[in-house]
Design a protein that fits this description.
single chain; four-stranded mixed β-sheet
Length: 201
């Protein structure tokens, strides 16, 4: 059940991972993150900082196999926590998009906090890894996040040369779009921003 303070916690345990996530949608972007995957921790810190969503994330996974289960299941848990914290999604702005620049890279993110999960992903990496991190896992994370948060998410990298920058602009752009979309709209306080009267799918 959603908290009126727009906070929520999720604990998820499988044979592959054990994850605990807490979010505060009206925070200041503070984060405490430990997944055992250094680059992923850095990206999640960017997600929290630029969305202004306070996040506590602790994940333990089967990293002796690879990072896939930990990254995907963390996306699932964060998405579930966001959905719970949003509740009926009353009074939110709902839609937002941004073109975000970082050095030579430009990435667009557009979000509809619709209750209907969908991901459109138009991002290509020129290498399979950033350090030891599989670049294909960036998409896997956002797929899991969108599916479980109940949001429509479009991410497009316009251009870029550095794979670290491409990944980081994805996280930062989604963060900034999400920040704007979940912001309360003072002109429709308490109203569900849909002619259907619901944002639950």
């Amino acid at each position: 059940m959603a908290s009126p303070e727009r906070k929520a916690s999720v604990a998820r345990k499988t044979k592959e991972t054990e994850i605990a996530v807490s979010v505060d949608l009206d925070g200041k972007g503070a984060s405490e993150i430990s997944t055992g995957v250094g680059f992923f921790d850095h990206m999640l810190d960017q997600l929290a900082r630029h969305s202004l969503i306070d996040m506590k994330i602790e994940a333990k996974g089967d990293l002796h196999i690879d990072d896939h289960h930990t990254v995907e299941d963390t996306g699932i848990a964060i998405g579930q926590a966001l959905a719970r914290a949003l509740g009926e999604r009353r009074g939110i702005t709902r839609y937002a998009s941004i073109d975000l620049a970082m050095d030579e890279t430009l990435t667009k993110a557009a979000v509809d906090v619709s209750g209907r999960p969908f991901l459109v992903w138009n991002v290509a990496f020129s290498a399979p890894k950033i350090g030891t991190f599989d670049t294909e896992l960036v998409r896997e994370f956002f797929q899991a996040l969108a599916q479980n948060a109940g949001i429509t998410l479009h991410v497009m990298n316009h251009y870029g040369a550095n794979n670290h920058h491409i990944a980081e602009t994805c996280f930062k752009a989604v963060a900034r779009a999400l920040r704007a979309a979940i912001e309360p709209d003072p002109r429709q306080e308490g109203a569900i921003p849909s002619t259907k009267g619901t944002l639950n799918g």
